[in-house]
Amino acid sequence: TKKGGLDSEDQFLESTPQSTSTLDPTREMEENNGKAVLAAVNEVLIDKVFSSTVNLSARGVVDFIEQLIAVSEAEIAGDTKKGISGVGATSTLPKVAGSGHGIEGPRIFSLQRLVEVADYNMNIRPRLTWSSMWETVGNHFARVGCHENAMVSMFAIDALRQLSFKFLEKPELTDFNFQRLFLKPFLVIMKNPGSREDIRELILRCVDNIIRSLAHNLRSGWKIFFSILTLSSSDKSVKIKTLGLAILQRLLDEHLEDLCPTPSVGSAESEVSDGEESLTASQKIERNTNAEDFVELCRASLSFVQTKESDNPLPIGLSMRALCHTACYADLIADKKILPPVSGYQTNDPAAPGYTYEGLSPEESLEMVIWRSLLDGLASGMCSSAPSTSGGVGCLVQRGSIMAMRAILLRHGKLFSASQWYAILNCVLLPAIQIGAEGDSSPVIQISSESPSVSSLDFLGEPLQTPPPSDDEGLQKFAEMTQSSDSSPSRPLGTAELLVEASFADLRHGGDGNLSKAYTLQKTGAEKRIQLQPFPDSWIATTAPIAIGLLSDLIISSSLELGKEGREAFWPTIMSQLVRWSVGSSKEKIQCEQVTDEEFNGDRMIVDVREWQPCEALVRIGCKEWSRVFRRVLEAVPTLDQ
């Protein structure tokens, strides 16, 4: 019996069963020779060849592994006699039809031995020596993991899984990235366009199992896992997409403490207030690393939000669930379970660590590093060009993105300074709202009324009602009913997450927008009052009222509380947007620019560059919002300072 429990690798791996007819004389002679050698050599001595690799020098064990990989590649290719005279490329042995291998089929004897060598040396060698070994071994596993033979590739991935469990049992030191190097073959296989669906599913299952069992030991390995989950969102298979988001959901529900450990009492506040000077070099690295991992986690969830039209669209339900994740992440920042980095902010490369907004102080810039990926991702969802209609209700992803943004900004807006608010408005909210309006090509933009007093646009949506406070009795009932479900997380919902969940429940059931009564929609058999929309794919008809209503909500909830400085940041910016929608641009703003056209010998040409003008639907939405803003501001005037 061979080591590993495989009586015959040929039977286990062959693509086509061998014929029971009389063997070719050459084949029969080879088998007899093999049996004679096996009988003459003690199998214990064979095992000792591999177990003794622990005694080799650092260079020696790398050379041994390279040669073992060469043999393994030959075995897997089906040509185990390569290099022996009279056999190999010139062999007259028949091929197995359709397999692409010799009659022996792919073998995994050396691959099994490679796993054993890696296992023997894992905890014996220094990590630097082990890293040099694993770079070669990992590349081989990545290639074999994409093999056309399902049994070969599955064996390779299962071997990776077992080695990963053993490797991750030992915690990683702060200044090292060995976990990222070790887990990289999983990511390489996942990225390979030739990998099969069952292989990608197996990789996700491995990731899920590792997180469930060893999340407390993961450090640099998180980056690999978040990259794999991000890739799953664009997979061709809905099954892979669903599994990827399910892993993210389980991570938030069951392993949040491993990813974002609760800081000791007073430590978070002291670290933030004392600044960089109070931290050791190791603590600074850890703070920056944790912030980078958190940003990658946010991007992994946001990758499941459909922002562009695609031949491979995401199910709407997955996008809506991913939007709920964003509110959870905002709650983590607000609770100081995630702290901003202490250095390394930049404004040029969105894909690089430390990406933040321009025009802020160093401290404000660092604080916005952990917010920007969330806010930018939601902004992309707000103006998404992808259709997201279900059951006659349209623009679900677009409206869901605005609801998530609204919940985050209304619940945690006090965390931002006036300068940060200015950046959020001008770099996130207003551009997204304008892109959504200008990108609407539905028939709604052509509809006009015969008279200003008689509207042909009665189908336009309404802004959302002012949300109840966090301690509202109805919201708390909703939270209790949500958590009583078997599939709900045991952790309590944060303030922004609770508001998003209630808003989505109201949206699903066609509620009246009163979130204090959202708990009634959670009851078994609750009636759904869905009203079909005549233009469900129109951003203006379905989403614009909610978007412009958000700006009004921010005026009342945040700008008035920030004092004079806050009002100076908010009022001109938001008022200009309301004016743009309700009035448009005057003829005086039509600009004429001189441009050089090479087709006309470089002669100067005068070209009219006309300002964008709102359609009647947007004008009516903007004018209606003006009255709402004035009414709410008048109510708040008595509370304003001089």
Record field, number of beta strands: 2
- Termini Cα gap: 90 Å
- The percent range for strand residues is under 5%
Low-confidence runs? 1-21, 80-103, 264-274, 586-609
Number of helices: 24
Computed structural class: mainly alpha
Strand sequence of the main sheet, in spatial order? 1-2
Taken from the alpha-carbon principal axes, the silhouette is elongated
If you compute it from the alpha carbons, what radius of gyration comes out, rounded to the nearest whole angstrom?
A: 31 Å
Helix and strand element order: HHHHHHHHHHHHHHHHHHHHHHHEEH
Describe the largest sheet. 2 strands, antiparallel
Overall pLDDT score: 83
- Percentage of helical residues? 55-70%
Notes on the structure:
This protein has 642 residues and is mainly α. Helices cover 56% and strands 2% of the residues. Strands 1-2 form a two-stranded antiparallel ribbon. The termini are far apart. The relative contact order is 0.06.
Write the layout of secondary structure elements.
Layout: H1 9-13, H2 25-40, H3 43-51, H4 58-76, H5 109-122, H6 127-144, H7 150-168, H8 178-191, H9 197-214, H10 221-233, H11 238-254, H12 256-259, H13 267-274, H14 281-302, H15 316-334, H16 362-382, H17 396-412, H18 418-438, H19 473-483, H20 495-509, H21 539-542, H22 544-559, H23 563-582, E1 591-596, E2 604-609, H24 616-636
Antiparallel strand pairs: 1-2
Helix pairs in contact: 4-5, 4-6, 5-6, 5-7, 6-8, 7-8, 7-9, 8-10, 9-11, 10-11, 10-14, 11-15, 14-16, 15-16, 15-17, 15-20, 16-17, 16-18, 17-20, 17-22, 18-22, 18-23, 22-23, 22-24, 23-24
